[in-house]
């Protein structure tokens, strides 16, 4: 196996412990159509979160999809059924991770739609109890390349950006949610971006 293909198969190792890896070109020619169809065919919502007694519409739109409900900032989100495009992306992500020796499965996805560079997601870890002890989350990016910013909870090292090009998959492996927070900060001048963060939600 030549060096280039082995690098491509294993993804780019951004962090070793905890594992953070990026895999380019997940869907290939199908990526542009996947973006257009998800944008057009989903019923995008902008829920309001109550913080310190005030209502704030979230600065993006989202859809919670899959087989299990989810709690986020104290609210319960019932899932909508799998859309065929999201299902195809899930299967492509699982297959790609499998090739890299990472066996996993996902029963849920949070889709986030950022209309422009002003829309964003604040600092958080995806560490809700129903995601289990050490969740593995796969984030697929379509559209504008908006970096995901990471910071260590104990500030052991400087914060850093991870570029998320169109049609890339970012694997946040076990320990990433425990040790780091991430955010999608606003960036003027960027166009439409949709991300799909695949998870396994444990049901009681
Ligand atoms: O859109 C992104 O890249 C980040 C999404 C995210 O952090 C999440 O869905 O939990
Ligand atoms: Fe997240």
UniProtKB/TrEMBL annotation:
<feature type="domain" description="Fe2OG dioxygenase">
    <location>
        <begin position="105"/>
        <end position="202"/>
    </location>
</feature>
<dbReference type="InterPro" id="IPR032854">
    <property type="entry name" value="ALKBH3"/>
</dbReference>
<dbReference type="InterPro" id="IPR005123">
    <property type="entry name" value="Oxoglu/Fe-dep_dioxygenase_dom"/>
</dbReference>
<dbReference type="Pfam" id="PF13532">
    <property type="entry name" value="2OG-FeII_Oxy_2"/>
</dbReference>
<dbReference type="InterPro" id="IPR027450">
    <property type="entry name" value="AlkB-like"/>
</dbReference>
<protein>
    <submittedName>
        <fullName>DNA repair protein</fullName>
    </submittedName>
</protein>
<dbReference type="InterPro" id="IPR037151">
    <property type="entry name" value="AlkB-like_sf"/>
</dbReference>
């Amino acid at each position: 196996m030549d060096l280039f293909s082995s690098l491509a198969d294993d993804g780019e190792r951004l962090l070793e412990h905890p594992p953070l890896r990026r895999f380019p070109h997940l869907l290939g020619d199908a990526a542009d159509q996947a973006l257009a169809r998800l944008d057009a065919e989903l019923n995008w919502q902008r829920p309001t979160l109550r913080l310190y007694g005030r209502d704030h519409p979230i600065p993006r739109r989202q859809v919670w999809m899959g087989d299990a409900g989810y709690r986020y900032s104290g609210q319960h989100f019932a899932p909508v059924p799998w859309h065929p495009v999201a299902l195809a992306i899930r299967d492509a992500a699982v297959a790609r991770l499998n090739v890299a020796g990472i066996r996993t499965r996902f029963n849920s996805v949070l889709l986030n739609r950022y209309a422009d560079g002003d829309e964003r997601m604040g600092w958080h870890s995806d560490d809700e109890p129903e995601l289990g002890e050490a969740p593995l989350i796969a984030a697929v990016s379509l559209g504008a390349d908006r970096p995901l910013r990471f910071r260590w909870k104990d500030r052991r090292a400087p914060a850093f950006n991870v570029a998320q090009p169109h049609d890339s998959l970012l694997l946040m492996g076990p320990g990433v949610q425990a040790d780091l927070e991430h955010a999608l900060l606003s960036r003027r001048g960027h166009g439409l971006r949709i991300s799909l963060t695949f998870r396994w939600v444990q049901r009681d």
